[in-house]
Amino acid sequence: MAVKLSKAQKKINYDKKLCRLLEEYSQVLVVAADNVGSNQLQGIRKGLRGESIVLMGKNTMMKRTIKLHAENTGNKGVLNLVSLLVGNVGLIFTKGDLKEVREEVAKYKVGAPARVGLIAPIDVVVPPGNTGLDPSQTSFFQVLNIPTKINKGTVEIITPVELIKKGDKVGSSEAALLSKLGIRPFSYGLLVQSVYDDGSVFSPEVLDLTEEDLVQKFASGLSVVAAMSMALSFPTLAGAPHMFINAYKNVLSLAVATEYTYPQAEKVKEYLKDPSKFAAAAAAPVAAAGAGGGAAAPAAKEEKEEEEESEDDMVAGLFD
């Protein structure tokens, strides 16, 4: 025969369990449990069994236990959970991949009818087509201004109609019509609101970020750092390459504008004096390739390699 525990003993056992979970697990999903039944919750527990534990309870009790646990262990990071315990929420403690756990929880949504007074979580649209209702039921459609016609002794909806908008309360007429049509527009399950990971709290949308997203965000931040570095003339690893290149351009400009010269600037000066000389040299390999076929290709390739080496020398000269 099972021994019936007192309320005080139940609270003690609950405190011990929550403290144990806070010690064993560093990852917690804070989930909203509105309109989730006990059978549905039991199914979620079975689906997560092995790597995750679902814990429900009164917010005041959970807050009290978390605060006492933080005082006793010195782990102040768990206090970030206290502000998240608002409304009908629960905690999922896990050691698995947070994204996979969230996806597993999302599988256990259950369809539900539109009950009177509920706040619609989504837009509800009644599709066109034959409803199977007899003509005596047209009063429901007339009240809601839904265009219909009688087709083969049944009511047929002519065009799709947005019956309920997201955030609106479900009225008695809307609920009755959806019930007659057999439409269960809403689905409910545990909804992840926040993610706690070893003292840090962030939005569940972060779990959807891919490696490509992270690389893109890092590159964007790096470009901002480089721009600020150059604007402030403050050297950083991100801005230094651009500073060196700009400095070399300034040195080259001075050499071109004055009589001062150095080996890497000679070619630039020579080009500025007589650009046609370089145009003729560039056109010669092309003409030779057209006349001699593949014979001129190695020469053109060799000339291109020499130009690349010359450009490398120009950049390298900056650090001589």
Write the layout of secondary structure elements.
Elements: H1 7-24, E1 27-32, H2 38-48, E2 52-55, H3 59-73, E3 89-94, H4 98-106, E4 110-112, E5 124-126, E6 129-130, H5 138-143, E7 148-151, E8 154-157, E9 161-164, H6 172-181, E10 186-188, E11 191-197, E12 200-202, H7 211-232, H8 240-257, H9 263-273, H10 275-292, H11 297-316
Helix pairs in contact: 1-3, 9-10
* H/E topology pattern: HEHEHEHEEEHEEEHEEEHHHHH
Question: Per CATH, which architecture of the largest domain?
Answer: 2-Layer Sandwich
Low-confidence segments, ≥5 residues, pLDDT <50?
Answer: 307-320
- Under CATH, the topology of the largest domain can be stated as Alpha-Beta Plaits
Spatial order of the strands forming the largest sheet: 2-3-1-11-12
State the shape: flat
Strands, total number: 12
CATH class of the largest domain: Alpha Beta
Q: Helix- and strand-based class?
A: alpha+beta
Report the sheet with the most strands, covering strand number, pairing sense and barrel closure. 5 strands, antiparallel
Would you kindly provide a written description of the structure presented here, covering whatever features stand out?
- The chain is of the alpha+beta class and 320 residues long.
- The chain folds into three domains: 8-109 and 189-208, Ribosomal protein L10, N-terminal RNA-binding domain (Alpha-Beta Plaits); 124-184, Ribosomal protein L10, N-terminal fragment, domain II (Molybdopterin biosynthesis moea protein, domain 2, Alpha-Beta Complex), CATH 3.90.105; 239-319, no CATH class.
- 49% of the residues lie in helices and 15% in strands.
- The chain has helices at 7-24, 38-48, 59-73, 98-106, 138-143, 172-181, 211-232, 240-257, 263-273, 275-292, 297-316; strands at residues 27-32, 52-55, 89-94, 110-112, 124-126, 129-130, 148-151, 154-157, 161-164, 186-188, 191-197, 200-202.
- A five-stranded antiparallel sheet has the order 2-3-1-11-12, sandwiched between helices. It has a three-stranded antiparallel sheet with strand order 6-8-7, with no helix packed on it.
- Strand 7 (148-151) and strand 8 (154-157) form a beta hairpin.
- The radius of gyration is 36 Å and the shape is flat.
- The N and C termini lie far apart (91 Å).
- 15% of the residues are buried.
